[in-house]
Amino acid sequence: MTITRLNRRHFLAAGLAAGTSALAGCASVPEAAPPAASVKTNGPGRLTMHAIDIWTGLPASGMRVSLSMLDGSAYRPMRTFNTNQGGRTDAPLFEGETFLRGSYELLLDVEPHYAKLNTALPRPSFLTEVPIRFSIDDPRQRYHIAILLTPWSYSYYRGS
Length: 160
Fold this sequence. Notes:
By secondary structure, the protein is of the alpha+beta class. It has one domain: Sandwich (Immunoglobulin-like). About 15% of the residues lie in helices and about 35% in strands. The chain has two helices and nine strands; from the N terminus they run αββββββαβββ. A hairpin with a 2-residue loop joins β3 (about 65-70) and β4 (about 75-80). It is globular.
């Protein structure tokens, strides 16, 4: 039995050859087509949100939220609401023909939420209002904004 020692150069060459042969049998993946100029700008999609207070481990219920849409260089208020017991809205924020392509902002009143829970916070609080800014490219899709909150941090993502 012969043992062959591979130096770095031979090892890399062997790895490249193995990878190339593995890819040779794969079908090529077509590139995504660029969006068509005639894409419908409003449709049957919807926008929902969910605020979760990970400090308490509970939904951020009763939190005041303002929704605005970017109009030129400023956000134009559209509506204000309070989250329900589950930290959500009772109905989608937008649905169907009312859902338009554009940039939006959800402004969450975090300070009153934690004050209501008697959370010991410094004065002034580190977070007072949390702006969540996002853009909608295709209002035919469903968008869900999931928001995770603590008295000192927040994160959000497009959920499913």
